[in-house]
């Protein structure tokens, strides 16, 4: 079953799924601006409705404990837009961590995650359905390492998936090593932002280890051109890896909304990128795997 902010649903109810998104967050403490501060509002509702018109039915909302998570606002968005939203538990990059992480043990951090997954978040009764986005900087810190370990410990007990943040697509191997050492099933892990690496040998290695990878920064062409993303994805699909890849656009700024006129917001994957894949010869059945059946498998809670 899939845990959403409105309760459990069957995997077959997920439909087209964006596997790494932010519908409500607040990163102003670190970023010192309000571009990454938004939530339940007419603007966000309209942005979600545009994605829904393209067929999106589920958002995996990986705004975690230190990113301004507000699951009550997510529940309002879910109700207003009639979409499924999977909420997350986790801790992000080191600079966002609360002070107590310095002294907390792996077990204590894992217990926080388990509380959110099995009891509810912030006394709301709304449960997280995934651990994420747990992160590593370009050089992994001690606390980031500890949080990744705690994520594996909690995920094994809860039967849920883990979604990670690999800064600029780097350190996927290091994250993979931690999960392997902790005995985490790689098939329940999505290594995030791997598309940014633009390194096919690296991607294939992670996939050969059994991990899922995300092409989840689609549309962020300041980092990598979408044409190259599409070509890389076509290569991986041709190699038989489509069962281990998920797609998303990681909208984390208001300036990425379609309202800006410069970006396509939550419609980026379906509006522009999927047609590009089809033009390159990627088959619809492989697209369905990346948008539907892979998320169904990965986010299914297995106890």
How are the elements arranged and paired?
Blueprint: E1 2-4, E2 7-9, E3 16-21, E4 25-26, H1 28-31, E5 37-38, H2 42-53, E6 56-61, H3 71-81, E7 84-86, E8 88-89, H4 106-118, E9 130-136, H5 142-158, E10 161-166, H6 172-181, E11 189-191, H7 200-208, E12 212-215, H8 226-238, E13 245-247, H9 268-280, H10 284-299
Helix pairs in contact: 4-5, 8-9
GO molecular function, one term: zinc ion binding
Protein name: TatD family hydrolase
Family: Belongs to the metallo-dependent hydrolases superfamily. Phosphotriesterase family.
If you had to describe this structure to a student in words, what would you say it looks like?
The chain is an alpha/beta fold and 303 residues long. It has a single domain, classed as Metal-dependent hydrolases (TIM Barrel), CATH 3.20.20.140. Helix content is 39%, strand content 17%. It has 10 helices and 13 strands. The protein has a 6-stranded parallel β-sheet. Strands 3-6-7 form a 3-stranded parallel β-sheet. Strands 1-2 form a two-stranded antiparallel sheet. Helix 4 crosses helix 5 and helix 8 packs across helix 9.
What distinguishing features does this structure have?
303 residues; alpha/beta; TIM Barrel; six-stranded parallel beta sheet; three-stranded parallel beta sheet; globular; Phosphotriesterase
Short synopsis of the structure:
This protein has 303 residues and is of the alpha/beta class. Helix content is 39%, strand content 17%.
């Amino acid at each position: 079953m899939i845990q959403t902010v409105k309760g459990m649903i069957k995997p077959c109810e997920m439909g087209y799924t964006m596997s790494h998104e932010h519908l409500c967050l607040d990163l102003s403490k670190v970023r010192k601006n309000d571009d990454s501060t938004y939530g339940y509002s007419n603007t966000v509702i309209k942005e979600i409705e545009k994605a829904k018109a393209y067929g999106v039915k589920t958002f995996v909302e990986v705004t975690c404990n230190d990113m301004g998570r507000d699951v009550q606002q997510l529940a309002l968005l879910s109700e207003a837009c009639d979409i499924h939203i999977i909420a997350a538990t986790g801790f992000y990059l080191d600079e966002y961590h609360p002070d107590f992480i310095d002294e907390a043990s792996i077990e204590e951090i894992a217990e926080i995650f388990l509380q959110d997954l099995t009891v509810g978040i912030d006394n709301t009764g709304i449960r997280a359905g995934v651990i994420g986005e747990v992160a590593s900087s370009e050089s992994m810190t001690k606390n980031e390492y500890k949080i990744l370990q705690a994520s594996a410990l909690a995920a094994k007990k809860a039967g849920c998936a883990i979604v990670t943040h690999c800064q600029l697509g780097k350190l996927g191997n290091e994250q993979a090593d931690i999960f392997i050492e902790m005995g985490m099933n790689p098939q329940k892990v999505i290594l995030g932002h791997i598309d940014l690496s633009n390194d096919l040998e690296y991607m294939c290695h992670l996939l050969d280890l059994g991990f899922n990878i995300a092409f989840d920064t689609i549309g962020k062409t300041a980092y990598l051109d979408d044409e190259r993303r599409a070509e890389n994805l076509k290569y991986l699909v041709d190699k038989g890896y489509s069962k281990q890849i998920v797609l998303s656009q990681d909208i984390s700024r208001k300036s990425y909304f379609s309202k800006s006129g410069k970006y396509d917001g939550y419609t980026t994957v379906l509006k522009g990128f999927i047609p590009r894949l089809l033009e390159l010869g990627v088959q619809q059945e492989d697209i369905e795997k990346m948008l539907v059946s892979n998320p169904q498998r990965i986010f299914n809670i297995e106890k």
